[in-house]
Task: structure prediction
Amino acid sequence: MPYSPDNIVDPNIPEDHSGIGQAPDTELSSVGILEKINVTALAQLLVLSGVAIFLPFFIHLPFLTGPIVNAVLILILFLTGRRNAILVSCLPSLMALTGGLLPLALAPAVPFIILSNIILVVIIDEFYKSWRDDFQGYWLGVLAGAVLKFVFLFFSVNILAAFFLKEPALKAVSQLFGWSQLVTALLGGLIAWGVLKFLKFFK
Result:
């Protein structure tokens, strides 16, 4: 007999009040729902990770790719969880370095770029979870995360560059990891907010 939520018990089978045989149906239903959620989250993770990793290879405009990559990291955080967001935070700069988009001279800065991305998503996550209001929690997290990301990246990379680079490369690094990092992080938060609102993630 076909499964129906309104007709689970076969009328030809004697009714059993012992509770035996009910658990498997419940377990199977739970497994089915869990698998559906996992498949959806996995699909979202793969698509968003692909955007973060490969978009800079097709669009060589930092003021455009920067906000999008930051938005993708925030979307991964909210849609698939902190662990996945931290994992994907490591990939864009590593791929940019191996793909030649990031100069080899900046290879020592890659760990700091990765840490700055992790700072962004962790701070946003902590603020959002600790605030009852979605709007306030989200935007306070984005603001604090963007500022801390910028401060950490600016000082760490510039101090590191001072030991390895000379003018005019040092000036170029200061511009690359300067105020633009703060702006792109904030714009990324704005893009992610729009997408999450469209998906009706927030109440």
